[in-house]
Amino acid sequence: MTNLTVADNYLNDNPDVNMSELLSLGKIAVNGVNYSMGFLAFNAEPPLGIPSFIWGCAFGWVGLLVVYLATDKDKEQTHKALIGCAVGTGLEVVVWVIYYAVVVKAATSGI
User: Does pTM top 0.90 for this prediction?
Assistant: First the structure.
């Protein structure tokens, strides 16, 4: 909470600076001490409001890449997208196996 207090005080003392500018700096200096603002710079909002798992599941490796780049290489969000990608790929394999087993076998057996 110290960093949040420091950020709040900084913004109160500098009305010409807004929160987005403060976050873009990444760090602020108060009394000669650098305070990391990394916890505030975390992008809590997933890309376009779509959860990272869904990005990976629906869009595969492209969704994984979007999450990786849009969240500034956030490991947790990228991991969720990777899990989604694996689940999506697994579902696709299951659908193709069922398709092959039902449709292709039925077509070749003359049913």
Answer: no
